Amino acid sequence: MSVQTTPLRGMPTWLAAVISGAAGLFYAYAVWNAVAFLIAQATGPLGLNGAGWALLLFASAFPILVFAAAFALGVRRAPTVLALLLLCGLALVAVFWLNVLAYALIGGASLVVG
User: Fold this and answer.
1) pLDDT at 53
2) Contact 67/23 with Cβ under 8 angstroms?
């Protein structure tokens, strides 16, 4: 009894690069915003305490981690699946960033020294 196996055919490398490169620009914008907000808060008149540094550094690294996870999950799948995974990851990054901003506005006094 012989089992026939067909080789898995993934998407072409150039297509994965185009999709992830286009989505990566949006992720890079999220990182850029987080780093700019971190610099603005750290160089402010009061500075940041440990919790503020931890929150804003994680907010800067979070889009990179989500992009890497979405890319790793979708690179071996169909192009539409990769694009949807990257889009869902971007939505997750956007929600997290809005939560960081809301926390900074509402409970911002707990993030600064003084």
Assistant:
1) 93
2) yes
pLDDT digits (tens, 9 = 90+) for 50-73: 988 999 999 999 999 999 999 999
What one-character-per-residue DSSP string does 61-75 give?
HHHHHHHHHHHHHHT
Q: Is residue 54 part of a domain?
A: yes
CA distance 9 to 11: 7
Residue 53 lies in a domain: yes
Domain that holds residue 102: 23-111
pTM score, two decimals?
0.86
The answer to whether 111 and 41 are in contact (CB under 8 A) is yes
- Is 15 within a domain? no
Identity at 52, one-letter amino acid code: G
Q: What total number of domains does the chain contain?
A: 1
What Cα–Cα distance (Å) separates residue 92 from each residue in 2, 28, 45, 46, 65?
46, 14, 32, 30, 11
Residue 88 lies in a domain: yes
Amino acid at 96: F
